Amino acid sequence: MILLTLRFIKLFNAQEWTPVTTNEIENQTKMYIKQGNYYVSTSLGNHNHLNLNDDLSKASVFLINAPSNEQKHRRIINLASDPNYTVDKHVWKDDVVFMYKKLHGGDNQRFYLEKNKNQKIRMRVVYKNKEKCLSNKNGKLIGVVCDGNDVKQYFEFISSNLPDVNMSNKEFLNKFRNSIVSLRSNENDM
Hints:
With about 190 residues, the chain is mainly beta. The chain is built from 2 helices and 14 strands; from the N terminus they run αββββββββββββββα.
């Protein structure tokens, strides 16, 4: 009886996730990846980790790519400053996620960007009969078992249409605010 109750609770709490379309995040779009007040950042170098920090000036800009029409829901996430670097979920080390200086096109470099009914976005990867979602653990991105109710797996993607460096701070802030990508449904805003 307890097992049946646990299964019911799990089904009741299950989130339905749908792909973020290329109309919502277009191919070759430059974006910040954000969680709460923290931005994902990394630096050039093979096997560098992806960290979250609250300093926008240290945030990395990522290039979101759809590799082909057949796999338009699976995205490759490159570093915009050097597209040779791509986000890679390590195949053998269970939770390791890092920047890899080679786009080999393996399944561990192709992420499903998915949203739930509340417009929360997660990054899910499926490779070698495994499924992982990117999650924040103590300010570092790792791969964990997907849990639709875990807010550490929810992210925002924000357009990085960077304004002219000669703009005033106020103009910069206004331009930045206006560049936020808002995935909307009829009832809910992100």
